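Supplementary Methods. Inverse-folding protocol.

Structures were first reduced to a discrete structure-token string of length 493. This string, shown here, constituted the complete conditioning input.
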């Protein structure tokens, strides 16, 4: 035997089926000219340049004589041995392939395990960036921990080394930590965890008896009634624990708060396949709205991505970026309003309301009727008003299904116009005098008892009919109308 070569299971199948395959010369390992250690190092390096794999049956290693056709094609006659990656893979191949084939023992299994570990670590790095992008952090992504800290914490976890069993950097302990104490099973419990982790990083078995533990115990009842952000605020402002908090603060960034956020994210996402509708997404929205711990949140997002790795988040991320290789959803087109001349009714046949995410490139300045509509705006308003009055007087709940559906379509059409304004205004606008008349015209079909004349009445109609899609809050003497996106990962915060 003169050479070793790594190939995929599919390549080996092709070699066996057709008798030859092309090979990449610079990936051939000439074993006769180098030491065993060099062979193992070369195998590791080549694997790290190949597509990553999951499962020990994806690749095989073959030995072959130094005879190639045109320095490119390897023939099956010159293959001298087949070496599976692991013992388990050997057993599997023996059952799947021709029984005449002689699969050798897995001589490089220890190297393969190192390859698998390195692939897993690389996935952690990519996981940090993936979750960063998924959470739509405004700052440009950059690594926030040194690689050696991440690799050390990873090795501690896969070897089941408890945080209390070693002394090292705080973040190594944080990423390797699991709770074993009976801390509160609530938002407050994560801050107990931080005290415990910090104690472990200082070589102590527990933080019980420390000033921080005493503070949490003394205020447990009051703190348990507060939200996560409120607890963080109390701790960060308390003089009683300043000796503790100062040790976990660097350049103004409160690492103890970032770490508690991370632990909450870790618990929440452990059994979930998506961040959508999660406690994680809601807390992200809450912190960004409050604007007090945004830098701490960003560090927690980074840590969460490092902990779980790329595989955890790629489904959500691919959906967010809408991969070019995904099937495209049919484009929805606006259809004209159909008018039944005999019954003199209008039956809106509009597109379903699309995503309410902000689209800043929309520049249309006027509300438009559905395309191809042959009705003038005034005629449309009159007919919609007439329709709503008829429906109201007849009591909608007693109407037949078709009538109720028609009324719903009218509301959808009005909602579409409000959403178009929000798109044009980049997600929010204030109900001001210069916009009031336009809003009155749009909403008039929904006010059958009296004419809309005040901002309060406009706001009330929006609240009553469209709060599932639109937020409206008082501001001074007016109101702010904003987008509530159903596709926003952090909606409902």
């Amino acid at each position: 035997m003169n050479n070793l070569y790594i190939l995929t299971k599919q390549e080996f199948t092709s070699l066996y089926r057709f008798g030859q395959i092309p090979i990449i010369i610079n990936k051939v390992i000439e074993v006769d000219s180098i030491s065993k250690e060099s062979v193992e190092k070369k195998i590791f390096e080549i694997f790290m340049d190949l597509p990553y794999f999951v499962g020990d049956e994806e690749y095989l290693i073959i030995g072959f004589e130094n005879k190639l056709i045109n320095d490119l094609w390897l023939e099956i006659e010159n293959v001298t041995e087949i070496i599976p990656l692991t013992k388990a893979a050997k057993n599997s191949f023996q059952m799947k392939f021709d029984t005449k084939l002689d699969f050798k023992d897995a001589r490089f299994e220890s190297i393969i395990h190192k390859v698998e570990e390195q692939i897993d670590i690389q996935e952690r790095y990519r996981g940090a960036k993936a979750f960063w992008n998924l959470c739509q952090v405004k700052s440009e992504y950059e690594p926030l921990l040194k690689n050696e800290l991440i690799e050390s914490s990873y090795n501690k976890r896969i070897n089941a080394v408890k945080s209390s069993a070693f002394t090292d950097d705080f973040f190594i302990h944080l990423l390797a930590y699991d709770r074993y104490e009976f801390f509160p099973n609530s938002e407050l419990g994560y801050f107990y965890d931080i005290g415990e982790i910090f104690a472990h990083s200082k070589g102590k078995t527990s933080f019980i008896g420390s000033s921080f533990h005493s503070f949490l115990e003394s205020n447990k009842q009051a703190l348990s009634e507060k939200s996560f952000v409120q607890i963080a605020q109390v701790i960060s402002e308390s003089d009683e624990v300043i000796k503790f908090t100062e040790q976990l603060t660097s350049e103004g960034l409160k690492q103890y708060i970032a770490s508690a956020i991370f632990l909450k994210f870790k618990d929440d996402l452990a059994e979930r396949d998506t961040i959508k509708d999660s406690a994680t997404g809601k807390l992200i929205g809450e912190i960004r709205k409050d604007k007090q711990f945004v830098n701490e949140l960003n560090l927690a997002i980074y840590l969460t991505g490092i902990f779980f790795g790329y595989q955890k988040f790629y489904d959500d991320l691919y959906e967010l970026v809408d991969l070019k290789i995904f099937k495209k959803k049919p484009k929805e087109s606006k259809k004209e309003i159909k008018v039944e001349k005999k019954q003199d009714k209008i039956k809106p046949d509009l597109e379903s309301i699309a995503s309410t995410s902000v689209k800043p490139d929309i520049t249309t300045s006027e509300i438009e009727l559905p395309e191809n509509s042959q009705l003038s705006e005034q005629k449309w308003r009159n007919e919609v008003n007439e329709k709503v009055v008829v429906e109201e007087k007849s009591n909608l709940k007693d109407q037949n299904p078709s009538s109720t559906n028609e009324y719903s379509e009218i509301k959808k059409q009005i909602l579409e116009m409000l959403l178009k304004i929000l798109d044009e205004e980049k997600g929010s606008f204030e109900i001001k005098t210069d916009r009031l008349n336009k809003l009155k015209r749009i909403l008039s079909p929904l006010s059958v008892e009296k004419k809309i004349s005040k901002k309060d009445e406009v706001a009330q109609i929006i609240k009553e009919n469209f709060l599932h899609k639109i937020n409206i809050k008082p501001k001074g003497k007016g109101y702010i109308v904003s987008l509530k996106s159903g596709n926003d990962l952090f909606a409902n915060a």
